[in-house]
Amino acid sequence: MVSQHGILLAVNIISDHFGPIVSKVCGCLLRHGALSLQDIVRRLELSPGQVKNSLLILIQHNCVQAYTSPRGAGDRTVTLYLAIFDNVLHRLRFSKFLSVVRVDIPESEVLLEGLLQNGRLTFEQLVERTIFKVSEDSPLPTREEVRMNFNKLVYAHYVERCPKPEPFFDPLAVEQPTSTRKRAPKTVEAVLSLEQKVVCTAALSDAERFSEIPYFMDGSSSAKDGHHAVAGNKRKHETLEVDEDDSIIAESEVLWRINFERFIFCLKKKFCAERKKAKMRLGTLAIWEAFFEANVTNNDNKTVTSPIDGILERVGQKEGGMSMTLDHITSVLNDLECTSTANNPEEFTFDLNKLVETCRNDEIESLVKKKHGQEAYTIFRLLLKQGSPVETDEITDRTILDKQVVHETLYKLWKDEYIDSERVPSTSATGTGSAQFFVWRVKNIYREHFMDNLYHAALNLRQMVNYMAELLLEGSKDEIKLRNRKNILILALTRHDESLMLFHDF
Question: How the protein assembles, per its UniProt entry (predicted)?
Fold first, then answer.
């Protein structure tokens, strides 16, 4: 469930990109969940045409997923629309996504930019846009060159074919246990939200998602052309006809979009690599960087896996790397918690989620320390590590703090909704009276509370940036001062987004 400030932030993002009417439709779906077209019209009191156009824009830009579901008696189904909150927030990271491709596949940057700006495009549209973007003094790329660059994005899983437009999804059938369903998958399904279930239902198989555009020469771009040149050995006429049809469909009808999961993994990997750098020695740092640079593409978004040959090659390219032995590099990798498995001792794997969890705790503890001081930091850290209720006197003994200070600090943390308290009857009570004492634990929803504060802060920063932009448009006398303030706020928003990604995306 998205928090109130998270919804307001999403509405603000959509409003900036597509206007107030589209943002109203998006906000309605985020607040009320999946709704039909008629339900949205009734709730917002907008015309059916306005709602329909808004939904088409949101679907085009991957912010809403449509699906059909049973409704009423018999076999009657209805089309429902569900806002994808994660994809709305990803619009904040478009510049970060471009920077990833700029380093990895620089020649494909224009193609990626087209998909980021337009949401969903066919390969035909991408070719036209790429040619249009070429400056007058530069040579025009051939269709085959564009196709090669595009297939690099598909091969690296940066781009995928769009999911099913309106898949059938029955919530009741999903919730009902079946005798043929295995226990492990059933446990995973139970924790998925409606949004996640609908997205999974609409998703294509990996073979379909990342199926590249077939190889044809420039003449294959038009379905009306009678002659198609094929590179390589000659093939039978029947096979050629099938390939031509597939190529025409793939280029002019199949829609493509950004694979957000892959880009978030790249940002997650970069974040974890940077977090450890400050505490490393020069020799260790070179091996750590080489490990991440040698990362092989896989479907796992939780770990980084690199072959030892790739690590050695990249270590050798760094200062002092040629003098490092295999044993030394292996020892450092083990110290950095990059482990090899018995199944494949030639590959090393690092658990990103473990480091992310540590960084999350550090961030919250740092905020507690900043707001309430060292004593609050000490007590909160104790409760967080303990993971179970701790009695007041035990907190006093283990933190070596004054009893009065402990009581005051616990009250501050409780009031700020970081911890919970509970009265527990004493087992050693004697006589007719019943002795009681307080126990304290970290709140189960303290992270949700923290994330809501992050959404609130991001919303405030965005509104302040927009306000500065409006003042500049009005032609204020203090233009230089306003521009400097705006740049400072944008920088603050960029840094704040790292915390938002840490808790929401990673």
Answer: Component of the RNA polymerase III (Pol III) complex consisting of 17 subunits.
**pLDDT given for residue 183 in this prediction:** 45
Tell me how far apart the alpha carbons of residues 420 and 442 are, in angstroms, rounded to a whole number: 6
Contact indicator for 468, 489 with CB cutoff of 8 Å: yes
The angle formed by the CA atoms of residues 97, 101 and 107, to the nearest 5 degrees, is 140
Query: Under a CB-based contact definition with an 8 Å cutoff, are residues 57 and 120 in contact?
Result: no
The mean predicted confidence, pLDDT, of the chain is 82
CA 173 to chain centre: 28
By CB neighbour count within 10 A (0-12 exposed, 13-18 middle, 19+ buried), where does 310 fall? middle
Domain 92-174+194-215+250-258 fold is: Arc Repressor Mutant, subunit A (1.10.10)
Contact 378, 401 (CB under 8 A): yes
According to DSSP, the residues that pair with 307 across neighbouring strands are 347
**What value does the mean pLDDT take over residues 480-503?**
89
Question: How far is residue 89 CA from its own chain's centroid?
Answer: 8
Reduced 3-state DSSP string for 189-234: HHCCCHHHHHHHHHCCCHHHHCCCCCCCCHHHHCCCCCCCCCCCCC
Would you list the domain boundaries of the chain? 4-84, 92-174+194-215+250-258, 264-354, 373-442, 447-505
Pick among 3.60.40.10, 2.30.110.10, 1.10.10.10, 3.40.47.10: CATH of 4-84: 1.10.10.10
pLDDT tens figures, 290-321: 888 888 777 677 888 888 888 888 888 887 77
CB 458 within 8 A of CB 9: yes
How far, in Å, are 96, 155, 184, 195, 332 from residue 267 at the CA level? 8, 18, 30, 23, 24
Long-range contacts of the stretch 315-321 (C-beta < 8 A, 24+): 315/286, 315/287, 315/290, 318/286, 318/289, 318/290, 319/286, 320/282, 320/283, 320/286, 321/286, 321/290
Sign of the four-CA dihedral 170, 175, 180, 184: positive
Cα separations in angstroms, 62 against 83, 95, 256, 279, 363: 9, 17, 11, 40, 31
pTM: 0.80
437 phi and psi, to 5 degrees? -145, 165
